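Form 12-C: Joint structure prediction
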Amino acid sequence: MALTGRTRTSENGNGETHPDQSAPGLPAASSTDTPQVEVSGLSFGYGRNGHRIVDVSLTVHAAEVCCLLGPNGAGKTTLLRCLLGLLRPHGGTVRLAGRDLTDLTPRELARRVAYVPQSTSSPFPFTALDIAVMGRTPHLGLLEAPNATDRRGALEQLDRLGIAHLAERSFAALSGGERQLVLLARALVQQAGILILDEPTAALDYGNEVRTLLVVAELAREGHCIIMTTHQPSHALTYSNRAVLMRAGAVIADGHPDDVVTGERLSDLYGVPVHVTGVSLPPGHGRAEIRTCVPIPGPSGIAPSGTAPSGIAQAGPAPTAPPPRSGR
Amino acid sequence: MSRPAPPSDADHDAAPVPATRPGEGGSGDGGQATIASAATPSTGAPKGRGGRATARLRLTLGDHLRVVTLGVVLLVLVVISFGLGRFALSPWTVLRVLGHELFGIGDAVGGQDRAVVMDIRMPRILAALLVGAALASSGAAYQTMFRNPLVSPEILGVAAGAGFGASVSILIGLDTTLLQIVSFGCGLSAAALSMAIARFVGRGSLIILVLGGIIIGAMFNALISSVQYFANPETTLPEITFWLFGSLARASMHGLIVPAIIVGVCLCILYAVRWQLTVLATGDDEARSLGVNRARIWALTIGASTLMTATAVSVAGIIGWVGLVVPHLARFIVGPSFNRLLPVAALIGAAYLLAVDDVARTATSLDLPLGILTALIGAPFFVGLLAKAGRQWL
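Section 2 - Result
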């Protein structure tokens, strides 16, 4: 399903050279294309009444970064696991690039959807290249093992993410950010059009978080369809062009992050007061403004130094919660 | 942390290249520099891709070279082993005998030399190679599949089951062939019971499978003890005890034909699943999302490893530690990927058991029990391995 080069809008103009605005600069995918992911009426539950997701419908196109937001237990991960074929839904259908998921063999599925877990653990000292080359598995014959060509291909993807120098290092000995990039490289080796990321930045420091998400946004610009869960609403505002808010197993809002991720909704969703505001970027970066969210501390909250508590009400770009801006 | 460097214009022109469609070969080259610079801006000038590829190729060649080297070492060891014993033979004599008998090269070597090589030492050496390779490769397979470096081929209670079968056979006076068959069958039954526990109690959980194996193993060990309790202390009890210690002294050429076929077929099965098993070692969900049919790989791996272990025990008795220690040694040499691990583990296992058996039959005038020797050598060796790499495994 044509992952063609609808990768850039003209509206970005001079800003093209900045990776920061890549994701929000993405156009909405045109409706004439077959969507990469088409979920309709999906339900799943454990046991009789343990419904995790109920009647979820979702359509995601190529070149979209779709952020799933919602409190713990909202059903985000369950939805992802249904998309990966790891859980068998009780009702509804999942279509991947036009094919029903139940019609796909595990290998066909793996050629369409790649999974990037938070981390992977093995008691054995696999090297980063060993892990990356595993992405070739769905393309190999059942009795085949990867050969030198496969390894070279995996090395190229490591190189592409700037971590080729880690190829022979033990995966377990890498830092969290490096591991995340290796797992991303494995997903690229898999050559799937759809990438599924489960809280990709949960264990990362700030710099690695920004770096990883910039890579993700760049991959979407190249035509990948990306679905990721996150606990940071600002990730949706900064790096994605699609936000889906979930609560108690149902989708409660779906659309462009600027429209969907509002302070009111976030406050309602997470049960804490949240303020969404725009932060203006220094000129010369293409995007004049990024929207981000900050919690509103109550009267008992810690006041910023030198600010009267009354000033918190308008907490915009408060120094207490720096927005994830990478381009400074 | 330095900030992500804005990519150059040249990078940008390449960026909008469409990603490759799923299932088609080749990946888009475009945008590579862009992503790399966004990801790790601090990375210096990228090294030549060609140079790195050749380096990798050399590494691959290195792997092959290691296998070949190990094979040569094993062959040398085999020739030396033929010469060892109370009736010592020079390697040259051994080569002359083997050359004539196996390949028809050179003149016939008569008399005692031929009889010692072909009739006395040949079955025992072949049995050592077979049992060593079987135990080491099934241990490597189990460790990879269970994602646990402390697992050994006895994990599903196979050894205890086979030992029980053999004890009963000795108690009721069956001949060697029947003993092998009964022992083999009991070993398989023990594994089947463990799997039944995992299936019906643990719903297919790997942990429950391991626990089931421990339970079944303990049960069969208790049964072995009760057989020993009822055995005649003058005749059958020493025989049972000696059998349980493990020995290759009983090996005969015709008794090795079926075991050799079983081990050969099982090694082929493990070789067939070598890569899918490697992927499974990183985690269930990930392996499934990479298109691995977990249930099928588990069934083939457990089936092949269990058959090999039961065969090894039925031929040689209970020989511990080989299947635990040798895979670690092999992992040190070629890394954890099972596709590279399997041949190396099999070769080292064969060589190791052959060497230990040489000690067993030449160190004293008695034939020392093999299982005791492998434990005496394996235990301190394993401590050494733990000291060196333990933090990585645990």
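Section 3 - Comments
Chain B is about 75% helix and 0% strand. Chain B touches chain A through 70 residues (CB under 8 Å).
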